[in-house]
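Thread title: Can someone regenerate the structure for this chain?

I was given the following input by a collaborator and told the matching structure tokens would be attached. They weren't. Posting the sequence so someone can regenerate them.
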Amino acid sequence: MKLVWLAVNASHAHSSLALPVLQSACACVPEVSWQAVSTGLHDDPAAVTAAVWSAHPDVVAATLYLFNRRQVLEVLARVKALLPACRMIVGGPECLGDNRELLRQNPALDGAVRGEGEAVLPDLLRCLLHGEPPTGLDGVCWRDASGRLLDAGRRAVFAAWATAPAPSVSPFYDTTKPFVQIETSRGCTAHCSYCTSSGAAPLRWRPLAAIRDELRELQRRGVREVRLLDRTFNALDERASALLELFLADFAGLRFHLEIDPAKLTPALRRLLQSAPPGALHVEAGLQTTGLAARAAVGRGGTVAAALEGIDFLCRCAGVLTHVDLLAGLPGQTLTDVERDVALLLELGPAEIQLEILKVLPGTPLREQAQRQGLCWAPEPPYDVLSTPELDVLALRRVAGWSRLLDGFYNVPALQPAVRRAAELRPGFLVDFAASCQAAGLLTAPASLERRFRHLHATLVEGNAELDALVRLGWLQAGFSPADRLAGAGPWKAAVPEGGEWLQGQAEMVASGRVWQLALPAADYWFVYDRRHSPQRPVVCLRRPRPTAT
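Best answer:
Regenerated them for you:
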């Protein structure tokens, strides 16, 4: 029997972890041969259909996420039309709810798996091999010969996950992309009602020795970035410290991406985070909201004070790039709550702030509670909240604009210093600047970085020398022309003065390049450009403070 795995990834930089995980788990069914068709969201469904059809599969399997659901289901429907006898099996986050409805709406599907596929896919494939119904398999919903929809109920849980072979043993584990994904734990002890892991399965951990072996293999294969899929890296204090110590001591050449609960940073974990060298760690910290009513409504644990203090600590760790998540549209949350949340983070200064509209996902407790809590949400992916008793449609549209503002301005390193300082100096900055960006059409369609720089300069810096200096510095560091009027820099023909602070590059790199000076009230800057090393960006930046008046 031939199985084709259809992997529709978020982009061509991503690869499906489900494919190697499930193929490895199904090695015990040697009668099934596997082939993969990997594609991206924007690829032509007709071309993808042709690639699947050309493999002459008996079974096509795929993981459904909210971002790829439409594309996957369209391709499967096309393949089914071409190959009526081919079985179509899906799983993944989109299959955590009522799969009878999923199969009813999509007649091309023969079955759907709720939960951890490794637990049931081998037996499901054996049933297909022998023409038997998958009766009694946890989490499997199927369409029988008469067309009836049957569901075994429950979620499948792979009890042997902790000791199963690492996904990297599979020939389908792809190490050619910019990063790879691994799991060191499964499950979650938290009970946030909007999360698909809320109380779904027990928390399990892979042995440290197995993780060390897996990382050594990945390092041998040239991997440079590893993203952990663990829901909460520091769910267990001692284990988190042991893992981080392993990462920093034995795998200094790798960059790790972790999700951390900022309210649960122990002294031991803090010491390790402080010791991380620059670029070693990318930490995602979930604040979600500081609104007490909203936190209580969704079962968000921990105190606001502890979470904010933890985020403040992470932002001050030189080796940690901190990304903080916020949610809007939670039950009991007001527009003032959201504005306050963003203002607090602008003050703390994480590297990135992500503000998202809450999604009412299949299989979550929130999906069952949402109607009682007055939430209205989109019936199709991404299931985003459309209104709540506290936030109507227009209020949530304003929040969506704030989200785009953060992505387009704050999350851009060259713009961030000016945005942060403007927020400190100007009460109501978020609302006022978002309104100006909306009026300029910067929040409704993609805008070039140059256009964003010019809007920021025109809107904020008039009469403020400090903000003017920050925008001009960012302009040059981003690689825009020093001759442009916005930069205000001039060619420098003399020798670069000795002394000062080398912000970028070294003294020996000065002689071979073109030098521009930027004179600012507090300091002078010299930028050196050398096309042999960088087509546009400066290769050297020297800062020399101006003497203060006595």
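The first strand starts at residue 2 and ends at 9.
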